[in-house]
C-alpha cells in the first residue's frame, strides 16, 4: 500500500484483518473493499456495509463487476476440483454471471479465454495451462480451496515469472478448509492462512 501503485485493495478474507486494512487504507489514502464471509461485530453497530460479497452464490457476480470496473477483457479461469465440488459451483456461478452480463446491453463484455481444471499432481498439464495464460492474458481468476494448492500455484507462477506487477490474480474464496487453519490442523491465532513461499 505504501510503496506500490495500487488503486484499490481487495480483502483480506477475515474480519480481524479487515479492521487493520480499514485503518491502513485511511492512512495511505487507498480504496479498500472488504471481502469477508462473516460480518465482524464492530460493523454490526453501524449503518455502513462495505462488502463485495457474503455468500458463494454472489461471488461470481461480484468478481465480474471487478473485471468490468477495470475493463479486463480477456479472462482465463483456473480452478481445482474435489469431491465437494465447491470450486466447480463457484466457477459455474461466475460463468452464469458472465453469460447474463453478455446478454445485457453492456458497453463492456469480458471474454473467458480459458476455463481449466488444474491438478496439483500433473505438473506438465499445470505448466502448459500457465503457459497458455501467460501468452493470452495478464489477469487470471483462481479458485482453490486448500492453502497447499494456493501455495503450489504461487510457486509455479513465480517460477514462470508471473509474479511481477504485470499480472493480477483474482482469487475467489470464502472461509473453507483452506482459510484460518494451519496445515497440521491447528488454529492460527489471527485466522489468517499461512502462506510461506520457499523460492530456490
From TrEMBL:
Write down the InterPro entries for this protein, in alphabetical order. Answer: ANF_lig-bd_rcpt (IPR001828), Peripla_BP_I (IPR028082)
Where does the Receptor ligand binding region domain lie?
6-171
Task: Name the domain of life.
Answer: Eukaryota
Q: Which GO terms describe its cellular component?
A: membrane
Does Membrane count among this protein's keywords?
A: yes
Q: Where in the cell is it found?
A: Membrane
Q: Does the keyword Transmembrane helix apply?
A: yes
Question: Which keywords appear in this protein's UniProt record, sorted alphabetically?
Answer: Membrane, Transmembrane, Transmembrane helix
Name of this chain's protein: Receptor ligand binding region domain-containing protein
Organism taxonomic ancestry: Eukaryota, Metazoa, Ecdysozoa, Nematoda, Chromadorea
